Structure formats: structure tokens, C-alpha cells
């Protein structure tokens, strides 16, 4: 049994042919045909999330884990607009989230009818394809066109640039009627061409490589990539290039500089001048560090290759000379790296070793603060698990520590918003058997507390909530502290706690406000069996955290 709406029958058939199984449903009446179609077919894995904003971020997390499209479907009106924050994040992360929105008949738009807005193309600024299907599909041509549009949308979500798409489907009443048989629909697929450089391009890149010995490679946000890792290890082991990464690069090693701010924020201007690269190579997506972006822009670099087989043409450092839309491992493996001119890489390596030693000395003695929390998390979070880090202060503290390479790391750095960090981590946890840790601040956590308003909170989720009573980032960045409006209008000082949220949604809860209680709480979270998700809420000193962080950087600079 399925919905009697032919557009729904076509959508169901095509999704099954393309292997799309996961569907996140937000309840409504106008999308009843879609709910009936997906839930009555045992092929699909359907979950119900009432809050559309949360639903979209959960789908984003599910797609991060699975690598295949996830469908989100909602009723008409403002419901679809609540998808936009997550869809913009999916757009900049190149994640194929499929929006299927129910709409009112076209003739009723702008006629004061309920739940009726200008819905076609509502998400067009942050999708790779948009389409509105024909409602009256009793003609062979309209059936063909609807089938074509569904196929095209789902194919475009995957190639040439992965990203979210929006399929808008108008429905007239009745909405709940069913058929026993489903309308068949043809599918088509895209043959994705291979990736290889022609000999002329290889020669051009090799010539530049040989002529430019001071080579710096900066790897941005990406999924784990063992093939690229092997190539970059070869480079760094022979000191033929400096490789910088962050937690969201999912790439670390003995000779890779993984804590950018720990190094460049603590060296003098004269040394910084010696670190200017002849050749900058960037790989992947966004970088967290504002300081490295500022530094590289100030260098006015003459040669910059950006290598990424997905996404936009980026010129983040105002120096782009070559855009190479390929997999980075395929490009770099074509080069003869050579074995001489090691001075540049060795200078960076020496600085990195000095700052790492200083970091360990300082953090081992640091007083109770956010810094203490991250030091302990660095020891407690188990290998071969997953970390999602919320934006604002947590993602910045993460960059100061070396993390085990077996831990897969994510953060919503496409748009860098705080709004859906919890929902994204929860969505990821729904798709994996691994332990998933969300490290979040209080403002981000409470903002997205609707993330738990459903019946699917997974027991493999651990939430580390660092509660310093407000948005501590505004004590760290320059400006807000001298504005006269820090506590009320920037920091949003509060006295809220998460205990009752944990209780309301059947999660375990631990509280810590010093090093001893933190160790007890983390032991329960990571070394004792639990049948539920867990929140570990950690209270740190709001007015001291930024001062301790400043002292940390001062100590490293003097080392």
C-alpha cells in the first residue's frame, strides 16, 4: 500500500533505485502523502522529528556518517524555511541532504490560504538544484517530466558538486487516499569521469614545485582520507613540505603541524617573516584559525594552488594562481617530491616541537578552567571514537591539543553557527555504533535543546557541556570587553543548568566543578556501562577563563 499521489509513487521508486533509505519526517497534514509513501514501504528507515530545524541538522549528521543522501520531508508553509540553517551548512560542507517539501496548489499562493507561502525555490541560495513538480500528473508528458526532475535533483546532489537539493511537491486534497500498486518510473544515473592530469599540466606543476622550495600545505575541513594521508606523510617525513592541519582535517602525524594557533600565535615577528612560503597549497574546506588566514594574507604569496574536487572556487588567502578541481592525492602523487632543500620544513618542525613541549608544561600546571577541561578530555575520550565540536570557544580550544588520529572529528564549520551542533552530533550517532562525543558550550547547548524532543536519542551519545555562564568567546575576542555591553548583550550571562533537560529526555547526568569531580564524571561517561545517552555538565569560572587562556599564550611566547 502507498499514497495514491503519482508524484509520491515516482519519488519512492526512484529513491529505492538510487539506494536512498534514510528519511527524517516532520509531522504535518499537507505532507501526509509523503509520510504514507515512505512509512508504508519497509525499504526506508524513517524517524519522526517534530522540529524542522532540528530534523534538518539531524539529517546533516546522518549524511556526514553515511556518505549517502538523507531525505527530510515536511508540511507546507514556514516549516520548510526552518530547514534553511542546516541546508546552508550542508551546502558549504558539500553534503547531499534531500529536501522534499509538501506545498499547497499553485493557484492558492498569495490568496490568504493557511500554511501557504511562496515556497518554490525558497532554499535556492544554498542548494545545488531546485524543482517544483507538476501536481496534475494524469498526462504521459507530465509524468515523464516529474520523473526527469526527480532523477535530475538526486543526481545533481551527488555530481558534479555534492550538496543539498530541494524537491517541492504541491498536493491538493484528499491527502490520505492510498493505492495498492505503485506507478513505475524510469531512472537514470550519471557516469562520473575519472580524474587524471594531462602530461602538460603535470609538467607545469612539477616545474613550479622544483622552483619553489619553501612549500606550505594547509589542509582544511575534510573526512578521513587515508590515501591523502599516505602522500602527505611521505612529504613530511622527508622534509619536502610543511603540512598544517586542524582537528576537522582528520589528518595528523608525527611530522604534521596540527596545532596552528599554538605555534603562530606565540612566535616573534622576525621569525614569522622567515616562514613565508614560496608555494602555498590548500586542500579541502574551511580553516578554523583566523590567525593563519590573517598571516597568509599578509604574506602576499605569489603562488597558491587550491586543490579540491568538491565545492566552490576558493581564494581565501587572496593569492590563488591555480584552481585544481581534483582529489588532492591524485594531484600530489603525480609529482616527484625531490629530497633536498629541507631548511624551511625543519624550521617549522623545530618551532612546533618547542611549542608542544611548552604547551605540555603549562597545561599540566593550569588552574581549574576551560583549559583544564580540554586537557582532561584529551586523555579520557577513547580512541576509535567520534568527536563533534560545537562552534565558538570549544572548537578553538580543540585546536590547542594533539588528538589521537583514530578519532574522527567533525564541526559545523561550513557556516560556523552554534544553532544545530547538538542535533548534528545526535544525527551522526544514530548512524554509527561508535561512541560519539559532543563537546559544546552552554549557549550552543541551550539554543539547540530541542535536539532531544523526539524518541530517537541514541545511547552512544556523550555530551560534554562546558557551562561558564555565558558566551565566553566574547571575553576572548577583541572588542566586546570594552563595549560596555559585554555581560548583557554579548556574553548573555545566565544561571541555567542542564540537569532537568537530562531528566526530561531520559538521559544520564553528571556534574563537575573541579578536577576531582570531573575525573569521576568522565570515568562514568567513558569507562562504565550505561544504557542511556549522558550529559556531563562542567562548571568553569566565567571571569577567569579568558585570563588563563591569555596567560597560556604568554607562557608559550616566552618559551
UniProtKB/TrEMBL annotation:
<comment type="pathway">
    <text>Quinol/quinone metabolism; 1,4-dihydroxy-2-naphthoate biosynthesis; 1,4-dihydroxy-2-naphthoate from chorismate: step 2/7.</text>
</comment>
<comment type="pathway">
    <text>Quinol/quinone metabolism; menaquinone biosynthesis.</text>
</comment>
<dbReference type="InterPro" id="IPR012001">
    <property type="entry name" value="Thiamin_PyroP_enz_TPP-bd_dom"/>
</dbReference>
<keyword id="KW-0460">Magnesium</keyword>
<dbReference type="Pfam" id="PF02776">
    <property type="entry name" value="TPP_enzyme_N"/>
</dbReference>
<dbReference type="GO" id="GO:0000287">
    <property type="term" value="F:magnesium ion binding"/>
</dbReference>
<feature type="domain" description="Menaquinone biosynthesis protein MenD middle">
    <location>
        <begin position="216"/>
        <end position="385"/>
    </location>
</feature>
<keyword id="KW-0808">Transferase</keyword>
<comment type="similarity">
    <text>Belongs to the TPP enzyme family. MenD subfamily.</text>
</comment>
<keyword id="KW-0786">Thiamine pyrophosphate</keyword>
<keyword id="KW-0474">Menaquinone biosynthesis</keyword>
<comment type="function">
    <text>Catalyzes the thiamine diphosphate-dependent decarboxylation of 2-oxoglutarate and the subsequent addition of the resulting succinic semialdehyde-thiamine pyrophosphate anion to isochorismate to yield 2-succinyl-5-enolpyruvyl-6-hydroxy-3-cyclohexene-1-carboxylate (SEPHCHC).</text>
</comment>
<dbReference type="InterPro" id="IPR004433">
    <property type="entry name" value="MenaQ_synth_MenD"/>
</dbReference>
<dbReference type="GO" id="GO:0030145">
    <property type="term" value="F:manganese ion binding"/>
</dbReference>
<dbReference type="Pfam" id="PF16582">
    <property type="entry name" value="TPP_enzyme_M_2"/>
</dbReference>
<keyword id="KW-0464">Manganese</keyword>
<comment type="subunit">
    <text>Homodimer.</text>
</comment>
<dbReference type="GO" id="GO:0070204">
    <property type="term" value="F:2-succinyl-5-enolpyruvyl-6-hydroxy-3-cyclohexene-1-carboxylic-acid synthase activity"/>
</dbReference>
<dbReference type="GO" id="GO:0009234">
    <property type="term" value="P:menaquinone biosynthetic process"/>
</dbReference>
<dbReference type="InterPro" id="IPR032264">
    <property type="entry name" value="MenD_middle"/>
</dbReference>
<feature type="domain" description="Thiamine pyrophosphate enzyme N-terminal TPP-binding">
    <location>
        <begin position="7"/>
        <end position="115"/>
    </location>
</feature>
<dbReference type="GO" id="GO:0030976">
    <property type="term" value="F:thiamine pyrophosphate binding"/>
</dbReference>
<dbReference type="InterPro" id="IPR029061">
    <property type="entry name" value="THDP-binding"/>
</dbReference>
<protein>
    <recommendedName>
        <fullName>2-succinyl-5-enolpyruvyl-6-hydroxy-3-cyclohexene-1-carboxylate synthase</fullName>
        <ecNumber>2.2.1.9</ecNumber>
    </recommendedName>
</protein>
<keyword id="KW-0479">Metal-binding</keyword>
Amino acid at each position: 500500500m502507498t499514497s495514491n499521489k503519482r508524484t509520491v509513487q515516482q519519488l519512492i521508486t526512484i529513491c529505492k533505485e538510487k539506494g536512498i533509505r534514510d528519511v527524517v519526517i516532520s509531522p504535518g497534514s499537507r505532507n501526509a502523502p509523503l509520510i504514507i509513501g515512505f512509512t508504508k514501504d519497509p525499504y526506508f528507515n524513517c524517524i519522526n522529528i517534530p522540529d524542522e530545524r532540528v530534523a534538518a541538522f539531524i539529517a546533516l549528521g546522518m549524511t556526514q556518517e553515511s556518505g549517502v543522501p538523507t531525505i527530510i520531508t515536511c508540511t507546507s508553509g514556514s516549516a520548510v524555511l526552518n530547514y534553511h540553517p542546516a541546508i546552508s551548512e550542508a551546502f558549504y560542507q558539500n553534503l547531499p541532504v534531500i529536501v522534499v517539501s509538501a506545498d499547497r496548489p499553485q493557484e492558492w499562493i498569495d490568496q490568504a490560504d493557511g500554511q501557504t507561502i511562496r515556497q518554490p525555490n525558497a532554499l535556492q541560495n544554498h542548494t545545488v538544484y531546485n524543482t517544483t513538480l507538476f501536481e496534475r500528473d494524469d498526462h504521459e508528458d507530465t509524468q515523464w517530466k516529474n520523473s526527469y526532475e526527480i532523477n535530475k535533483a538526486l543526481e545533481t546532489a551527488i555530481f558534479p558538486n555534492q550538496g543539498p537539493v530541494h524537491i517541492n511537491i504541491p498536493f491538493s486534497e484528499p491527502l490520505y487516499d492510498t493505492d495498492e500498486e505503485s506507478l513505475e518510473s524510469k531512472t537514470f544515473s550519471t557516469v562520473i569521469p575519472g580524474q587524471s592530469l594531462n602530461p602538460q599540466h603535470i609538467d607545469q606543476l612539477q616545474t613550479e614545485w622544483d622552483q619553489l622550495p619553501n612549500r606550505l600545505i594547509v589542509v582544511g575541513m575534510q573526512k578521513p582520507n587515508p590515501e591523502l594521508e599516505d602522500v602527505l606523510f611521505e612529504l613530511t617525513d622527508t622534509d619536502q613540505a610543511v603540512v598544517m592541519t586542524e582537528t576537522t582535517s582528520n589528518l595528523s602525524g608525527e611530522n604534521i603541524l596540527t596545532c596552528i594557533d599554538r605555534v603562530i600565535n606565540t612566535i616573534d615577528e622576525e621569525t614569522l617573516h622567515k616562514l613565508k612560503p614560496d608555494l602555498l597549497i590548500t586542500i579541502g574546506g574551511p580553516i578554523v584559525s583566523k590567525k593563519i588566514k590573517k598571516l597568509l594574507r599578509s604574506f602576499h604569496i605569489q603562488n597558491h594552488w587550491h586543490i579540491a574536487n568538491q565545492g566552490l572556487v576558493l581564494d581565501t588567502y587572496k593569492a590563488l594562481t591555480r584552481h585544481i578541481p581534483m582529489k588532492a592525492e591524485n594531484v600530489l602523487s603525480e609529482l616527484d617530491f625531490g629530497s633536498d632543500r629541507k631548511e624551511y620544513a625543519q624550521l617549522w618542525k623545530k618551532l612546533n616541537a618547542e611549542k608542544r613541549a611548552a604547551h605540555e608544561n603549562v597545561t599540566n600546571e593550569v588552574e581549574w578552567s576551560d583549559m583544564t577541561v580540554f586537557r582532561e578530555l584529551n586523555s579520557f575520550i577513547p580512541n576509535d571514537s567520534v568527536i563533534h565540536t560545537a562552534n565558538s570557544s570549544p572548537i578553538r580550544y580543540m585546536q590547542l591539543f594533539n588528538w589521537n588520529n583514530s578519532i574522527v572529528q567533525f564541526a559545523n564549520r561550513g557556516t560556523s553557527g552554534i544553532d544545530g551542533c547538538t542535533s548534528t552530533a545526535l544525527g551522526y550517532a544514530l548512524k554509527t555504533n561508535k561512541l560519539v562525543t559532543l563537546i559544546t558550550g552552554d549557549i550552543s547547548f541551550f539554543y539547540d535543546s530541542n535536539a532531544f524532543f523526539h524518541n530517537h536519542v541514541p545511547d552512544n551519545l556523550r555530551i560534554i557541556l562546558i557551562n561558564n555562564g555565558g558566551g565566553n568567546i566574547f571575553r576572548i575576542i577583541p572588542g566586546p570587553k570594552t563595549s560596555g555591553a559585554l555581560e548583557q548583550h554579548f556574553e548573555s550571562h545566565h544561571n541555567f543548568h542542564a540537569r532537568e533537560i537530562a531528566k526530561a529526555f531520559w538521559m544520564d547526568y553528571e556534574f563537575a566543578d573541579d578536577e576531582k569531580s570531573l575525573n569521576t564524571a568522565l570515568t562514568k561517561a567513558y569507562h562504565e556501562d550505561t544504557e542511556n545517552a549522558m550529559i556531563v555538565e562542567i562548571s568553569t569560572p566565567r571571569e577567569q577563563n579568558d585570563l588563563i587562556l591569555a596567560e597560556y599564550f604568554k607562557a608559550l611566547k616566552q618559551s
